[in-house]
Amino acid sequence: MQQLKGTGVALVTPFKANGDVDHSALQSVVNYQIDNGIEYLVVLGTTGESVTLSKQEKQDVVKTVVETNAGRLPLVIGIGGSNTAVVVDELKQTDLSSFDAVLSVSPAYNKPTQEGIYQHFAAVAQATDKPIILYNVPGRTASNMAVDTVVRLANDYTNIVAIKEAAGDLVAAMKMIKHTPDDFLVISGDDMIANAMTLAGGAGVISVIGQGLPSDFSEMIRLALKGNSIDSYKLHHKLEASIDLIFAEGNPGGIKAMLAHLDLCEEHLRLPLVPVSQKLRTSIIDFMNAY
Fold it and tell me: Which pathway does it take part in (predicted)?
């Protein structure tokens, strides 16, 4: 899965003022990533507000991204949830032919045990031949995937090829890198420690800020993959304030404010999410103008 090394971007879903998906803006966002060095694209993730999209809207978003990408970059699709049977059914019913892998988040709200998490992903892996990227984000799911669970899944299922590790725990990430098979990819899901994780042997990042600052962010990760800590950290320090800003009032409000400043899409979100405050918007714009 060399195509999943580097910087992947978790695409936003732009909306119009009336709440409809803005497919023209989505095309602009996709092209902006491709034109500025991103290695692969992730559609229907958390940043894409996928939980507020209808089944038809998801299909339409996928169609727009696939057609706009036109085979230029590898694609990953988000298919996950808290009901294992529903996730398995969606995997079986979805046309995955355009996608290189599936990103599947650990169940939220249920708070399963480690055995429950293992059995959930065992069912997911058996439902498709597509490569699976586990997604650990305990800040959203209320349960953390233990290192031992990740190692067990990586060894037991050949199509479980990677994890997007977004716990913000560099020590756990380093243990995953050490104890999983050599070809298993540990991908950062936390922009602030993406450089450190990559330098420690990780495979890069699935990023949010990379969507707004793709050129420098993707170059930082490429430098880290080469082991160039000095130059990669120069870019990290240049970028790091923007990471704090876009997450200050939650995701994807911050990144949509940045993308709006870049004239790529408008700031509209779907409830229960709302746009960022004017104070934060001003800070993001000030950063971009100085940048």
Answer: Amino-acid biosynthesis; L-lysine biosynthesis via DAP pathway; (S)-tetrahydrodipicolinate from L-aspartate: step 3/4
